[in-house]
## 1
Amino acid sequence: MKTNQSMTRPAKIISFFSQHFGWNYPSNDPRWYLCGWDATVFRNVRKYSTDFLLESWRVEKEVGEILTKEIDGITAKIFPAHYYPWLGYFNFNIIRELKKEIKQNNVVLHFFSTYNNQIYLLTWLFRDIPIVISNLGTTPPIFRYNESKNIKYLILNKIFKLTSKHIDYYFVSGKDEREYLLQFLDNEKLSYLMNIGVDFSAFHKKDKTEAKKNLELDVNKKYIMYVGKLYKQKGVDFILKTFEQLKSEYNIGLILMGGYKEDPLYQAAVSSGAIIHIREEDLPLNLYYCASDVYLIIVKESINFLKFGGTGIASLESLACGTPVVSFSLRHFPSADIDKVGVIPKSVDELLNCVRQILENPSKYYQCREIAMSYYDWGIISNDLIYQYKKLFNKKYGK
């Protein structure tokens, strides 16, 4: 029941991301407080709305007490992490603190994880509060059971189905998850796209020849680009093989960004003659995307990851720079425009022909940036989030 009191209380969105990030930044770096995907989302929401108080909560192993700091109009709240066999790293004070918040504010909870025992627990305990879920690539328990036949995933599947009916809005990771969730969640509760975007002002289109000149690359060469660790899980072995095969047909180069010298395929990459830039280097990533003719990534370690891992941020960054993509994960891009932004191989055996197709027909993909921007610009993503938040606040609290 809506009351006058509830209609005058502050509207607050509290996120919880069930991962810790102590390894990402030193704790004296302001970025340490807001370094999860929830913080990225909230920063962009803040650009388009000041209607809500925003708080980002998580746990950290190295923290001895609850830490609170406001940065960029967002309050970060860090809890000491304790390990529990069933829950992983968690802090039960989170439950106590949420109860306090609910007494003082009109609260919407936004969980940036899905198939996770902590999220099941919080969803059940706070089922009377509006709950938004963002899946950033985790796999439903039933699919894990189908892959491993471990009975615990059948139990977790029952728990997820029990708690999922209390989810008010769900940002899916891609088409497969949406199709799966439609079996027991209403269509109006499900998004069509993941709520992660790209800053199109940071990744912008530049003439390829000019970009190559700026990077002192061979302007007469075609370039394949990949961003990520140098290991088989991301198909780097097949990327190297494809590069080797293409050398006999094209004046071509391979640019590998963001790996480490310790990566399993680092030496193989060096032997291939690829241009390698390790993660520690501060490089103009935008220019490298612009200078490349095709972005190639082959995630293949798990069929479930392909189903629930989404399109991939690096692929979207490449499209923002006007460079088309070859990737299995491109299947999650909106169907109407997939053929205009890249090629989806049916198997690793098709990689060579897929890359050829783009190299031979570059003009077909001239609208990569504009098409990607129409779906994944942070302005569009943020305004959709704000719309959903406002609907939930109005439904529950009358504001």
## 2
Amino acid sequence: MYPGATHTRFSHSLGVMHISGVFLRQILEPYLDDGVSRQDFLHYFFLLRLWGLTHDVGHGPFCHSFDDGVLEDFGMNHEYMSARIVKEDPEIGAIIERELSDFDVTPEVLSECLGKSREEWVTDRNIGETEHTETAFFQILKGFYSTDIIDYLLRDNLYTGAGYGNFDWQRLLLSSHLIENEIALDRKAKDTLDAFLLSRLFSFNTIYYHRWSRAVDHLVRKFLDRSKERINFREYLEDLGKYSELDEHSIFQLKELRGLPEAQMLLQRKIPYRRIGETVIGMPNSLSFLSENDISRSLLEKLGKKIPVDAYFVDTPNLSLNPMVGEADVSLVDYSTSPPITTREPIRRTSWGEIPHSVWTIRLYLDVRYNKHRQEVKRAFDAVFEGAGQRTHY
């Protein structure tokens, strides 16, 4: 029996910590005592493992829904909050100082590592006395096959029983090499990277974008929107002590929110929405498709005011087939030649063909209280995509 799709941030963070250490050892051990001192090696080893352990401490209740529904209003995200917490929390700081000061790992260094943008990871700082720079570490943390993605794919497929987590993650890591300012994959392991991309695609479609999961996400978002009318989240963001105590359990205990119908539905697991229409569209390029607002406006034009706008909603989760935002090519190194040749190839060019740029799963949901309008709403939804040359299915 699978344990109910268990996914805690703590167990995930332990996994990311472990895989980060494995990855770091693979790319740096060849340089140990030959450009990278043992002290430098231990500094990076503990720093990246600690990044894995703390990369999600800034998540609020309902994880990414809280990012989108609350933190985004203040120009923040959970990565920013993670960086603040490890830098400002006195207990965390004391532990790091006590255990890792001998390896030049400080709360400030860890915070910088957690909060860097892609552009800020481009650096001239060399790794020890090698010709390589610390820019390469970005690919361990947030690259095409980052340690974060590897862990949640393995973990969530195991706990849900979905079965798409059987890619060879160890071969991916053991076939990775430090080449100048980046990490290159041995060309012989390209099929393993393709399998990883397929695992990610099917996992999102089957687990993270499951129709019930998205219905719950919509209810959570409504709950958070209503919550912002009753409590001031800025107070929690300014007081890290209060923020750290804010989780799925404690937010339901706030007296200002107990009476919200969305809170009661979430606590009682009563999700009122049912999917009544769906279409999947593969986009060959980076052009955006219709947004949720665009489709909702089209539905409103067709349905008018005779059906309340809160009776239905459109969900448009879309997945870029490229896991690394801002990069389109992966570096491959061919060791069958002398000297080895490194080339860059589009990540979407696989051994079994070129995959689309992104996949859009567009769904229409109806509140069960308005089930008598089901066919009318469904016909309007179908008409939107027939006009766009798309066929809908359910």
## 3
Amino acid sequence: MNNADFLLDTNMLGYLTEAKCGRDQPHVKNVQERVTQATNKNGRRLFIAAITAGECECGLRMARRADLAQQALAREVLRSFPAVLSIDNSIAIDHYAGLRAKLFERFAPKTVRETAKNCCVEQWIDPVTGKTLGVDENDLWIVATAMAHNLTLVTNDKLKRIIEAVDPPIRIENWTEPAPLTVSHHAHAFR
């Protein structure tokens, strides 16, 4: 995929749904404007991960006192991204497993790390949760998907620990912030 393409995190779809519902907070407008800019430039494409589709649909199904009109708009936003990237062996083995192992080595309690080194394969089960490592498992899968497809991840999440484990680094943008200003260079200089 083109390295100028983007993978939108779940929270970006939430902001796009808010925009469809008529909310006009600055961060919602910024996301909407950045989506428009990205898709109008050089054939850039926007993708979502299968994990994002699952998170969105799960949230819609679990919503109490659901606003059916708002849910319909959320599903419309979700369907507007026909390119949902699936989890495959490459993502699971080449990217997710490496990230998770680095996080385990860096943040798992020392006693758990030592026990894991002495286990044989048949006994080894991941003994720590994402909470113990200070990460969200779904975020790991989304970052692994961005890595596998060489996409810029668009998120409002901090992902500090995950980003520390990513090597080589991935590109991340937060579209809730205004787009950076571009400076145009003119042929003449100021005098």
